[in-house]
Amino acid sequence: MYKSAVILVLWLSAFPIVGADVVVGSKNFAENRLLAEMYAQLIEDRLGLEVDRQLGLAGTEFCFEALKNGAIHIYPEYTGTGLVTILGHEPGGTPVAALTTVRREFLDRWNLWWLGPMGFENAYEIAVPRALAVEHGLTTISDLVRVAPQMRAGFGSEFVERDDGLPGLERVYGLRFASVQTLLEAPKYQAAGSGSVDVLDVYTTDGRLLTYDLVVLEDDRDFFPPYQAAPLVNGDLLESHPAVGSTLALLADALDEEAMRALNLRLQRDKDRVEVVATDALTQLGLLAGREPASMTTITSDGPREREGFLAYLFAERSNLLRLTGQHLGLVGLAVFAGVLTSLPLAFWLATRASGLAEFTIRGVGMTQTIPSLALLGFLIPLLGVGAPPALFALWVYSVFPILRGAYSGLRDADPRAVEAAEALGMTSRQVLYRVRLPLAASPIMAGLRTAAVITVGTATLAAFIGGGGLGEPIIAGVQLVDTYRILSGAIPAALLALVVDFVLGRVEQRLRPRGIGS
Amino acid sequence: MARNVPPESQLPRSTHRYPSMLKMNAAQDSGEPLLELRGASKSYGDTVALAPVDLEVRVGETLALIGESGSGKSTLIRLFNRLVEPTSGDVMLGGRPSSSLDAVELRRHIGYVQQDGGLLPHWTVRRNVELVPELLGWDLARRHERSRELLDIVGLEASTYASRYPLELSGGQRQRVAFARALAGDPDLVLLDEPFGALDAITRADLHDQFMALKQRFGKTTILVTHDLAEAFKLADRIGVLKSGRLLQIGTRTELAEQPSDPYVERLLTHISPQRPC
To answer: Is A421 in the B-facing interface, judged by CB distances under 8 Å?
Structure first.
């Protein structure tokens, strides 16, 4: 008991301290993470406030919900996204009109503040590989309409859904593709590079436009709305910490598209760490106190560098990975523990009831397994915010069914002759349950628990989508950045963790299995 | 219904008397039946498991119930320890309706042996035997003494077998433990549901001898369910024949042999060699 208390404390200490002054969030792509990290460092450096980071939340919806309910205070947003995705307006209009509209409506409706735009636009655009553009003579999106029925498109999942994405594009231009695949950012570029996708959506500032030699097609009907990047801030924070507003105002007009593209390239191609790139950018902008301002030109990348080997990478990342592994184990341990506390009493209760009720209940609980995990996490943000709590809740929900199923079957199917003898010789039904059924069900109960634990080790990687931490962080970041080392640095420990958890619980099962019962 | 009960003097007497749930001593002294079924029946929905039965059992008597599977004999025996509740009629135990007795308390005073043990596999032999004494709240020393005594009586040296688990015993040994367990709480009544059914012929003969020795020694009122007529003839004072949920006839060996009341009983008896020692 003492030991587990120590472990719990250690694990909790792996999480950011609750009640930091400012919580900065970001969406789950490189540029957005970088901007958020720049906000965080700037606030820390200038104001000496304690800043908590919830980077890599799974998309606009997650960030916006978290901002509204105060789970995060700031994240980088784009005016076009605010206008079309969040407010539901028609795409189009000038940059100034878009900014004015979102400022007014966000303030009125949610007390959310758009601070000064940072100077660059990161709009959606449509791109094709250069060879294809030359072959078909494509320079505008209107040119694309002719040949689109023979082309395979690869789009991001948000783009496919958003009104300022594919649906609007089809409406305004009459575009129809041979096929549309929904892809994550990094694989999308890889697919274009390898020729398995002919058309893709890109961001203006994406450094990979250069690396994959893509041609951006002109939006000749002005369909795409302006996407100026700006800090979107919760009004309550500006009230309690007004200086945050003036500090972030320092970033207004600080970066143009070219500078942003260069910074993105350092993340996407050179695999530099977000924190490092953010510090460099702020230093070069002259915004970090006590550091020499550097010339803006050095922001550009030096080109791809040789990387150290995988083992060296792991070694360099060891303390971070250890922390993430601790978080991961904590998430799994706490969720499964809560699952046991829920499932076992329920199984006991059901074991003494009519089997019809039990089957009905277990089927009902089984339905929870069919809830897509991202959808569940999305539902939870308004209730539990972001970070560990919603992740724990979701993992707990998924762990209940396997434990309940195993425990109930074990208790119900315990050697009927032994159970009858125990009843016939005068055990109360409680005694039969605890002294006969329970010990005889030890193996199936533990089997359910093992299943739940191993599944949870896997599912817990999704916690990173809502800032819950754990080994999903490097996996998700790595997928975005096509950084195999980073993916593996999360995936391998997660797999090992699953094996270790299964092994340890297997030993526990052996210890718990009563003597006299064969294996 | 024909009833032929041996005179009191012929029944063996228990040497010591524990407090009796079923007021056994009073029943013994007054000559009233210890157990009585009055039109007791059992149905599951429309299925009649047991048609109304009238039956009396006296203190110290061994009654065998014989019939094919599905004849209702297991249902009947379970009426006595309330594992089965009658659909109609009354089950009288020690002169009181069974429904007026606490089922759990009652069962602690009724020994029970099933086919192939029903020993708790996660408990040692000793703990199995001490199950009922433990439920009755006997202290440890008394429990241990009792389990040692009974294991010795059933031919299992306590020092060798007490700490073993059921899995480590042969089928015959497990049944011996089950008998010891059934007797450990000094019950008023012992119910045996095909206790020899799963044993090979030699082991079964040994266990029959064991049964007779226990009967001689403890003189417990016993109801034995079996599908083996020879076994019933060998072990029981009276025999009840069941078929399709009906009690066809009940009587001593002689009564059954000389006045079979039903063609089924008659046919059944042709399978028994008349020379067979009883």
So the answer is: yes
B109 phi and psi, to 5 degrees? -110, 15
Beta-carbon count within 10 A of A504 CB: 12
B188 has pLDDT over 70: yes
CA gyration radius for chain B? 18
Question: Testing the interface with A: which of B77, B105, B122 to mutate, by most A Cβ within 10 A?
Answer: B122
- In single-letter form, the type of residue at position A446 comes to M
**ipTM score:** 0.86
CB contact under 8 A, A426 and B105: yes
d(CA B249, CA B264): 10
Which residues partner with B50 through β-bridges?
Answer: B42
Cα separation, A101 vs A184, whole angstroms: 30
- Structural tokens at position B192: 């045996």
Q: Which residues of B touch A (CB under 8 A)?
A: 81, 83, 104-112, 114, 116-124, 131-132, 135, 165-168, 178, 181-182, 185, 191
Give the tens place of pLDDT for each residue, A472-501. 988 887 877 667 888 899 999 999 999 999
Give the domains, in start order, of chain A with CATH numbers.
16-121+227-305 (3.40.190.10), 124-217 (3.40.190.120), 316-512 (1.10.3720.10)
| SS3 call for B12 | coil
Q: Do B121 and A425 touch (CB under 8 A)?
A: no
* Number of helical (H) and strand (E) elements in chain A, helices listed first: 26, 10
pLDDT at A159: 86
A321-380 pLDDT, tens digit each: 999 999 999 999 999 999 999 999 999 899 877 778 888 999 999 998 888 888 888 888
Question: Which residues, numbered 490 to 519 in chain A, qualify as contacts with chain B under a Cβ-Cβ cut-off of 8 Å?
Answer: 514-518
> A413 and chain B: CB distance < 8 Å anywhere?
no
Are B112 and A424 a contacting pair at CB < 8 A?
A: yes
Q: What is the DSSP string of B28-83?
A: HHHT--SEEEEEEEEEETTEEEEEEEEEEE-TT-EEEEE--TTSSHHHHHHHHTTS
Over residues A425-452, mean pLDDT: 92
Strands, sheet with B96-97, edge to edge from the N-terminal-most edge strand: B47-57, B35-44, B88-93, B96-97
Q: How far apart are CA A402 and CA A408, in angstroms?
A: 10
Q: With contacts defined as CB-CB under 8 Å, which chain B residues touch A420?
A: 83, 114, 118
Whether the CB-CB separation of B98 and B27 falls below 8 Å is answered with no
Check B122 against A517: CB less than 8 A apart.
yes
